[in-house]
Phosphoesterase
Amino acid sequence: MKIGVISDTHDRLPTFKKAIAFFRKQNVDAIFHAGDYVAPFAAKLIAPSVLPIPLYCVFGNNDGERKGLKSVLPDLEDQITVTLHNRTIVMSHFIDWLKTDDMTPNNKPADVIITGHTHEIVNETRTLPGHDSSTLFLNPGECCGWLTGRCTVAILDLETVTAEIIDIDD
């Protein structure tokens, strides 16, 4: 199962559109957005009525118009825990918003933890304290390209629990 992972689109529609087009071309099975759409008009690009695949999304710290965003993305939450392809995925915009219990649902480490916020790419496996199995920590970087000059997304392979960071040409 291939998952498209995106974060920090910050109303930059040209790069957001290119990222969604890339995900469609890759035939991803679902999309995870780790927050900071910013305005409801930007979120409309991935509204459930537009996407033919499941969308999982969380609020970011810059998503101030929560009511408007929730009208476009009704399942939007502060953080989520999802099981797909027998893998547990925890997603929150900001890693510091997660408590240890959030990362270990049912006392088992999540297979993948997706975050955004920093605009910095993270793609590494770590072992959570007190546990033996590893967890993939994934931040796809920023789709907007405002801070780093790069528009990046990730493709997450749930079979191997690995991710590839992709630069989307601006």
Observations:
- Residues 13-25 form the longest helix (13 residues).
